[in-house]
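Figure 2 data, in text form.
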Amino acid sequence: MEKIARQGLLYDFYGALLTEHQRHVYEDVVFYDLSLSEIAEEQGISRQGVHDLIKRCDKILEGYEEKLHLMEKFEQTKKLAREIQSLTKELSVSRNMDLIHRIEEISGEIIELEAH
């Protein structure tokens, strides 16, 4: 996954666990694409300070994902939902009732993902 996209998703899932200052600086980099110099000037800190803060936030957010796996579960759920969508379209055309069994299995997998 592209780094910025991954950072955005990690922030969506775990950003609320960062301090207000960390969130503000991280948003400026990830969502507003501001340069380290622009952020440093705005925050009254050095470019190196901004760089270190972003690295620290990345490490914190990745640590949460390693422990909680919310992003991974979300991606798996999306994949399974797409498969259900595809199978229901196929079912409406083919009327193959065997597809119902697979749809039930997939929905069970989704429920299990949420339980862990």
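Caption note: The longest helix spans residues 70-94.
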